[in-house]
Amino acid sequence: MSGASGPATERLRLTALVPAFNEEETLVDCLRSVAFADEILVADSFSTDRTVAIAKEHGARVIQRDYGYSASQKNWAIPQAAHAWVLLVDADERVTPALRDEVLAVLDRGPAADGYWVRRDNYFLGKHIRHCGWGNDTVIRLFRRDVSRYQDRQVHAEIDLPGPLPTLRHPLEHYTFRSFAQYWRKLDRYSDWGARQMHRDGRRTGALGILFRPFGRFVRMYVLDRGFLEGTHGVALSLLAAFTVYLKYVRLWEMQIGGGTGAPREAPPTPR
Fold it and tell me: β-pairing, 115-124 with 127-128?
């Protein structure tokens, strides 16, 4: 860690980094929530809707690059931030006023570490989900630009910083699942990327894996993680997660038998 050794005489300046592709439905609320930042940087993947226009209307600086996968896109964008500290916020996330004030306080007194974990409150079809394993979601989102990069993985990549890092008290709001039409596209991408990552890691599967791993995911989320307390939302979410696991493992099996190359597909329709 290389945090400040004493109180800062002037607040450190902040870039809010927002990766985006065709996010005209979500981007306005996201950009309003990060308007306190000294710079808003939108890393766009050549959107075909009004994403770029909306970003510029809200005073954001826009950079563009073809999308490969999440970690590579973010690692390309992070060094282009104008300021030494970065708050990374996806277009379907919102910085609450309480989190805003906490971030500004950290920068005002001088950070104690090179990065900070941020809790996320996840919403599924408008409901805040506290169970199903979603209640302990944390991500590194406030970090020092020059020493922070994501692990080079297609899925489940995190900022690679050594040592224990502090966790901010106040959470991001994450509206990950807004409609089934939106989710199907995400399900297709994540199951494909997950299968390709496992294939590159030398993982194997067969009939038992394809059959029992989805069942195990449902039991874990709905029973062990008490998804039943979420009512119908818990049933639907646990079944969708199980189906995503099924697709991932059946695609891994397809690659094993030669039906898939394990090479990256063409650029996906959306980056998240």
Answer: antiparallel
For residues 125 and 177, is the Cβ–Cβ distance under 8 A? Answer: yes
Within 10 Å of residue 143's Cβ, how many Cβ atoms?
22
User: In the chain, where are the structural domains located?
Assistant: 14-177, 180-256
In tens, the pLDDT along 156-186 reads: 899 999 889 999 999 999 998 888 887 887 7
> What does residue 175 show for φ and ψ, rounded to 5 degrees?
-100, 70
Gap between the Cα atoms of 228 and 144, Å rounded: 40
pLDDT, tens digit (0-9, with 9 covering 90-100), for 63-98? 999 998 899 999 999 999 999 999 999 999 999 999
Assign domain 14-177 to its CATH superfamily: Spore Coat Polysaccharide Biosynthesis Protein SpsA; Chain A (3.90.550.10)
What distance in Å separates the CA atoms of residue 201 and residue 221, rounded to the nearest whole number? 25
The number of C-alpha atoms within 13 Å of 165 and in the hemisphere containing its C-beta is 26
Q: In this predicted model, what pLDDT tens digit does every residue of 188-199 receive, in sequence order?
A: 878 888 898 899
DSSP secondary structure letters along 44-78:
E---SSSHHHHHHHTT-EEEE-----HHHHHHHHG
With beta carbons less than 8 A apart as the criterion, state whether 214 and 194 touch: no
